[in-house]
């Protein structure tokens, strides 16, 4: 079977055809109402490599959207991975060690990040990558329950359900959907692009008369209790955020 016919990972798996199993109980009216009002946290990470266990986060881009995909707020920050850490493939993410001078450590912003992921479905283009890094890094810090599966929506895996595209890469999907993307591999720009894809998918689904295809992820997000954070540390993180410089921008000499 071609890989693009496989159901996305955020779709509920089908039971194997064996002995009849009891039908699952339908969600309560309260659960359905809650799911319809859950928002989204669209995230993109730039990292030193591909392994959540051996590589480090260099940049976080976060876009908060309501249940209709409308952007409510956004922020981004560079992350200092620590002394002596190789920043990895600069040719891809465009970051050099000197760009990270003055950036907060992940420990300093993790509570803010978790406070804004909580109560929302986490969205990413290739969620397996981004959520994998978040699960490992935030789990190590005690901000996510061990073994918890974060409710997620992957715009890459759902792409061919909603449009025709020769590739599932972010840039190709954005071109097919008419979504603008500014500086690819800048975490905030990529998160904004993924948020645009999410809105496109929701609009296509609405025209088809469909409920969101990932409704079960929204039901999970409405009741997910695996996140933990310190509100005072979350508030203290705001002034520490350091966004990536735009091409041609000068660094503030006081930073």
Automatic annotation (TrEMBL):
Cited Gene3D superfamilies: Ribonuclease H-like superfamily/Ribonuclease H (3.30.420.10)
Region (Disordered): 1-29
GO biological process entries: DNA replication
InterPro entries: DnaQ, Ribonucl_H, RNaseH-like_sf, RNaseH_sf
Keyword annotations of the record: Exonuclease, Hydrolase, Nuclease, Nucleotidyltransferase, Transferase
Top-level taxonomic group: Bacteria
Protein name as it appears in the record: DNA polymerase III polC-type
Record organism: Actinomyces slackii
Gene encoding the protein: polC_1
């Amino acid at each position: 079977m071609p890989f693009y016919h496989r159901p996305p990972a955020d779709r509920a798996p089908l039971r194997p055809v064996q002995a009849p199993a009891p039908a699952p109980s339908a969600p309560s009216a309260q659960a359905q109402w809650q799911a319809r009002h859950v928002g989204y946290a669209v995230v993109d990470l730039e990292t030193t490599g591909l392994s959540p266990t051996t590589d480090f986060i260099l940049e976080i881009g976060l876009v908060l959207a309501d249940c209709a995909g409308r952007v409510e707020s956004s922020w981004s920050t560079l992350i200092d991975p620590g002394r002596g850490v190789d920043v990895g493939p600069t040719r891809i993410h465009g970051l050099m060690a000197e760009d990270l001078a003055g950036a907060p450590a992940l420990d300093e912003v993790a509570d803010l990040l978790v406070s804004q992921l909580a109560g929302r479905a986490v969205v990413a283009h290739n969620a397996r990558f981004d959520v994998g890094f978040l699960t490992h890094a935030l789990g190590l810090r005690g901000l996510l329950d061990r073994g918890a599966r974060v409710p997620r929506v992957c715009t890459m895996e759902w792409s061919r359900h909603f449009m025709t595209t020769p590739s599932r890469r972010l840039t190709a999907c954005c071109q097919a959907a008419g979504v603008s993307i500014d500086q690819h591999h800048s975490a905030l720009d990529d998160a904004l692009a993924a948020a645009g894809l999410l809105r496109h998918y929701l609009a296509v689904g609405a025209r088809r008369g469909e409920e969101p295809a990932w409704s079960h992820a929204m039901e999970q997000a409405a009741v997910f209790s695996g996140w933990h954070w310190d509100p005072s540390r979350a508030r203290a993180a705001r002034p520490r955020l350091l966004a990536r410089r735009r091409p041609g921008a000068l660094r503030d000499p006081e930073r």
